[in-house]
Design a protein that fits this description.
Layout lengths: L10 H8 L2 H11 L15 E3 L3 E3 L18 E3 L7 E2 L12 E3 L7 E2 L12 E3 L21 E3 L10 H4 L7 E3 L21 E3 L5 E2 L5 H9 L4 H4 L3 E3 L6 E3 L17 H45 L25 H6 L1
Parallel strand pairs: 2-3, 3-5, 4-6, 5-7, 7-8, 8-9, 9-10, 11-12
Antiparallel strand pairs: 1-2, 12-13
Length: 334
């Protein structure tokens, strides 16, 4: 059959034809694009890679994408347009360990936005427009190690907003509008050893005492210690926070210890109730006395006057008084 000529098969095609089916499936699953049937656990608009990483960066997304799954370990949502986080914004991603929400123009975080993220270890909220955080916002994040709030508009950070984060090691607060940290905030972070503070309008005063005490126990790197400054009220002079010793706050009122607070909260209401009861008893007694006096006066006014006695007895008891020695009666008796 010389009229038929067989072309020589290509080496790559021959290799693929002779390959077993599992190799085909593996190649197809690895090379499948995001959102295709080959990647059912990846959000449709994102790009996913093996290991549970979903990259949704710089896609102009207005909200957290749907389709999050338990297989996700890292979710990159930076450089989007997520302005607010509603309750349960990350439902379904309970195994998430890393979440990047930086540079979104984020200005609102619901108190239940992070519910269900009990495995989260890194949260980046930097370069947004957050001005306040509701109490309990980070309470579900018991495994959190790193939290960045840098580059926002926070003027105050309450202890209740962070909650008790026993494993938090790094907290970034630089480039906000903080003048002081609320008392008790750092005391609820026992594992914290890295605190970034530069770029805030810290005010030199008694409110800095807890922060300066923490900095003495956890010294800042030399390069950062020189840039963390506070300004004196009414002056234009700056001082580094690390320059304040505990003696510098000797004129400040000492905060009450827990035992003293317990005594105050116990005796305070009791003393108030005793004082209130005493005032009520005294007032009731005075009111009763005045009422009795009015009744007596009213009764005396209604009683008819007693007529005078026409024959008054000079000595009703029959005992005459002895005569005056100088009187005529006494002289006659003599």
């Amino acid at each position: 059959m010389r009229g038929l000529s067989w072309s020589r098969p290509r080496p790559l095609l021959l290799l693929l034809l002779l390959s077993p089916w599992p190799v085909w499936a593996q190649v197809s699953a690895t090379a499948s694009p995001s959102g295709s049937p080959g990647a059912p656990d990846c959000p449709e608009v994102c790009t996913c890679v093996p290991g549970g990483l979903a990259s949704c960066s710089a896609l102009s997304l207005p909200a957290v994408p749907a389709g999050l799954s338990l297989r996700l370990r890292a979710l990159l949502l930076d450089h989007n347009r997520v302005r607010a986080l509603p309750p349960g914004a990350f439902a379904g991603a309970g195994a998430l360990q890393r979440l990047d929400l930086s540079e979104n123009g984020l200005h609102s975080v619901h108190v239940r936005a992070f519910w269900g993220l009990g495995a989260l270890q890194l949260l980046d909220l930097s370069a947004n427009q957050l001005e306040a955080l509701a109490p309990g916002t980070f309470a579900p994040l018991r495994e959190l190690r790193n939290l960045s709030l840098a580059g926002n508009r926070l003027a105050r950070l309450e202890p209740a907003a962070l909650g008790a984060l026993p494993l938090l090691r790094s907290l970034s607060l630089q480039d906000n509008e903080l003048a002081a940290l609320a008392p008790g905030l750092l005391g609820r972070l026992p594992a914290l050893d890295a605190l970034h503070l530069r770029g805030n309008p810290w005010g030199c005063g008694c409110a800095l005492r807890p922060l300066c005490a923490w900095l003495r126990r956890h010294p800042l790197p030399a390069s950062e210690a020189e840039t963390v400054l506070c300004v004196w009220p009414g002056r234009l002079t700056l001082s580094p926070l690390t320059a304040f010793s505990d003696a510098a706050f000797s004129h400040c009122a000492q905060p009450l210890a827990l035992r003293d607070l317990a005594v105050v909260y116990t005796l305070g209401p009791a003393s108030f109730l005793v004082s209130l009861a005493s005032c009520l008893a005294l007032g009731s007694g005075l009111t009763a006395c005045r009422a009795r006096r009015r009744r007596r006066l009213r009764t005396a006014a209604l009683r008819p006057p007693r007529p005078p006695d026409p024959n008054p007895d000079p000595d009703p008891h029959g005992c005459a008084s002895p005569a005056d020695p100088g009187s005529p009666a006494a002289a006659a008796q003599a």
